[in-house]
Amino acid sequence: NAGVTQTPKFQVLKTGQSMTLQCAQDMNHNSMYWYRQDPGMGLRLIYYSASEGTTDKGEVPNGYNVSRLNKREFSLRLESAAPSQTSVYFCASSGRQSYGYTFGSGTRLTVV
Amino acid sequence: GENVEQHPSTLSVQEGDSAVIKCTYSDSASNYFPWYKQELGKGPQLIIDIRSNVGEKKDQRIAVTLNKTAKHFSLHITETQPEDSAVYFCAASSSGGSNYKLTFGKGTLLTVNP
Q1: Shortest Cα distance from B106 to chain A (angstroms)?
Q2: pLDDT digits 0-9 by tens, A6-34
Q3: Distance between CA A104 and CA B74 in Å, rounded?
Q4: Cβ contact (<8 Å) for B104 and A41?
Q5: Measured at the alpha carbon of residue B86, what is the angle toward residues B80 and B88, in degrees to the nearest 5?
Q6: A33 CB within 8 Å of a chain B CB
Q7: CB–CB of A68/A47 below 8 Å?
């Protein structure tokens, strides 16, 4: 099925460990985004990529890095995980001709 | 940057009643206003959107209205059903061109009681 695929769906990390969240879309969208969702905080933008080869910081970029590997894939890396990064992470994409975002199903990350 | 306020944070209605969720935005340059529905354990899904050159848009039981002067927009759900129970997010776009960066409200938990 066409859409946005995120892996893994669940992850538990120890403080200080690193990991990469993967995201891929098959809709030929130009723009991709990473959001985090915390209770009572809504969806907050971490990083985004307006087009292949570009990335920009969003509202809460500290502690994260991203890579737009190609047009399909946009990964989010936590170099040294902290308990404050416990959250649900969503990847999304949007196309040039469409304003709407398509979201993945999310990655639930717990840092202990 | 853009700031989006959403009210109420929780809303409980009886099946068949109407539900209204309201949002305000701060950036007068914003020109795109989508609404997303998020069911438990899933990602948000676009249910309706409106652009700044339109005052109202309807899709079956769902409608969205926009008041650019007052910088607020609302989601209206009529004849609510238990399957409408979810978290609803409003958003506003503050960027143009090929990148439509959205700023989201904090969400409204809608509960429809049978």
Answers
A1: 4
A2: 999 999 999 999 999 999 999 999 999 99
A3: 25
A4: no
A5: 95
A6: yes
A7: no
* Residues counted in chain B: 114
- E strands of chain B, at which residues? 4-7, 10-14, 19-25, 32-38, 45-51, 56-59, 62-67, 72-77, 86-93, 102-104, 108-113
Task: Answer for the pair B75, B88: CB distance below 8 angstroms, yes or no.
Answer: yes
Rounded Cα–Cα distance for residues B24 and A108 (Å): 30
* Residue A85 to residue B81: CA distance in whole angstroms: 36
* pLDDT digits 0-9 by tens, A40-51: 888 999 999 988
Sign of CA dihedral A100, B51, B109, A57: positive
The answer to whether A106 contacts B99, with C-beta atoms less than 8 Å apart, is no
